[in-house]
TrEMBL record:
SUPFAM superfamilies associated with the record: MFS general substrate transporter
Name of the molecule in the record: MFS transporter
Presence of the UniProt keyword Iron in the record: no
Keyword Membrane: yes
A Pfam family recorded for this sequence: MFS_3
Organism: Saccharothrix xinjiangensis
Transmembrane segments: 27-50, 62-82, 89-110, 116-132, 153-176, 182-202, 233-256, 268-288, 295-315, 321-343, 355-374, 386-406
Locations listed in the record: Cell membrane
Topology in the lipid bilayer: Multi-pass membrane protein
The Major facilitator superfamily (MFS) profile domain, residue ranges: 184-426
Keywords: Cell membrane, Membrane, Transmembrane, Transmembrane helix, Transport
């Protein structure tokens, strides 16, 4: 079966798990599952620590903004690193940095010297690591498998990332309740250390993009030319940017919903994250099943995401809200999986790392605007209103892209009319 046929059929359910046949990918996925559990423990602890120190949803939004600022200014540079160097070596360096940062935060928390300024510095440092880590990780995932099963590999990677959300928030909530905030960061550091050891043991399956390395200076503007020349890539990055800026503000709205709307604590916030994770696993697998790489599919999934979040915002009962969060997590990951894998299929291998850098810039770079804005709306008008905004804005963007896809060609640009005009003039 040729690559083209694999690309068309590789997303079906029977191909969704084909990447697991590759030993290196299985090995990598094991380390990734442990590291992602630590990431979600760290995310939960960081959000709740900010609320404990300040009592303000706006401060949670500012923390998100601090973590996203490096992506905003250096996102494309991370893609250059992913194209230029061995992804495995880059990931070893980033995991080492995560171990050091989490142990430092654990020491401050256990000793009782942690302040909000330390949290902001920690968030910025994590953002700088993320700038390099994520493009390399995205491309590394795709390079360990053949192109025909790349969508399934990305889906499995996303499923592991968000499936660990079923464990991480619960473990973090239990540790916060029994041992204190500092031990959450300590366990997170240990999880990153395990991932680091796994990466050092992988000796093959990490091809370097020789074309990119031999091409001389790798310029971002050369990739921008490729992006602009492909409308599907432009519109997909636009939708990713809008959803990343205004739609994915779960730490802000859910922390506020748990604290004020439903009068809960860290345990309820952890339960919200578990519900999102359960839906995210389903959404990632559904995204991996998608057999066709079409912009229309990306637009439809963006519409579903916006509608689901707007509906979840107005649900009155806690039980129904949890069900809505499962649906929200599913629609979110289905959109991200299809958007991510489509961009990798639509772009040349030698620039794929830089395109993934632009993807992460679109997904994360808008947080310095969206995080504080949504936190400000939650503070002034309540968490439900903030969550409605998080759904309506992506829905409007998807409607705009959908309208552009169905816009009829102007009559004066009709090829038949143009040929007739040239015939008459000649």
């Amino acid at each position: 079966m040729d690559d083209r046929r694999h690309n068309e059929t590789g997303g079906r359910f029977k191909y969704a798990f084909a990447a697991l046949r590759i030993p290196n990918f299985r090995f990598y996925l094991t380390g990734q599952s442990v590291a992602c559990t630590g990431i979600w423990m760290q995310v939960m602890a960081l959000d709740w620590l900010v609320l404990e120190l300040t009592g303000s949803p706006t401060a949670v939004g500012l923390t998100m903004a601090a973590q996203s600022l490096p992506v905003l200014f250096l996102g494309a540079a991370g893609g250059i690193v992913a194209d230029r160097y061995s992804k495995r070596v880059v990931l070893i360096a980033t995991q080492s940095a995560c171990v050091v940062l989490n142990f430092a935060m654990a020491s401050l928390s256990v000793s009782g010297h942690v302040r909000i300024q330390h949290v902001y510095v920690f968030a910025v440092a994590l953002g700088m690591v993320f700038v390099v880590d994520n493009p390399a990780r995205q491309v590394f995932t795709g390079e360990m498998v053949p192109m025909w099963c790349i969508r399934g590999a990305i889906a499995l990677n996303s499923a592991v990332f968000h499936g660990s959300r079923l464990i991480g928030p619960i473990a973090a909530a239990m540790l916060i309740h029994t041992e204190g905030m500092g031990w959450v960061f300590a366990v997170s550091a240990a999880c990153h250390l395990f991932s680091l050891l796994v990466l050092t043991l992988i000796r093959s399956g990490d091809p370097v993009t020789d074309q990119a390395a031999a091409a001389g200076p790798i310029l971002v503007r050369s990739v921008l030319r490729d992006v602009v020349a492909e409308p599907r890539v432009v519109w997909t990055l636009f939708l990713v940017a809008v959803i990343g800026t205004f739609g994915l503000k779960f730490p802000v709205v859910l922390a506020a919903m748990a604290d004020s709307t439903f009068d809960g604590g860290a345990q309820l916030y952890g339960l919200f994250n578990v519900a999102l994770a359960a839906g995210s696993v389903v959404g990632a697998i559904l995204g991996g099943r998608c057999a066709r790489t079409r912009l229309r599919v990306v637009v439809v999934l963006a519409v579903v995401f916006g509608c689901t979040q707007a509906i979840a915002a107005v649900v009155p009962a806690l039980e129904v809200f949890l069900i809505a969060l499962i649906a929200l997590g599913a629609s979110n990951l289905a959109f991200q999986t299809v958007a991510n894998s489509s961009l990798q299929v639509w772009t040349r291998p030698e620039v794929r790392g830089r395109v993934m850098g632009l993807y992460m810039l679109a997904l994360i770079g808008g947080a310095p605007l969206g995080g504080p804005a949504v936190g400000w709306v939650c503070t002034l008008f309540g968490p439900r209103t903030g969550m409605v905004v998080c759904g309506v804005v992506p829905l409007a963007a998807a409607a705009l892209v959908g309208a552009s896809l169905h816009r009829p060609e102007p009559r004066w640009h009709s090829p038949r009319r143009e040929r007739r005009r040239l015939f008459r003039s000649g």
